[in-house]
Amino acid sequence: MKKGNYLSVRGVLSYCVIDYIFYRPQTAMEVLEHHVVAETYASDHRPVVAVLGLL
Question: What's residue 50's pLDDT?
Answer without folding.
Answer: 93
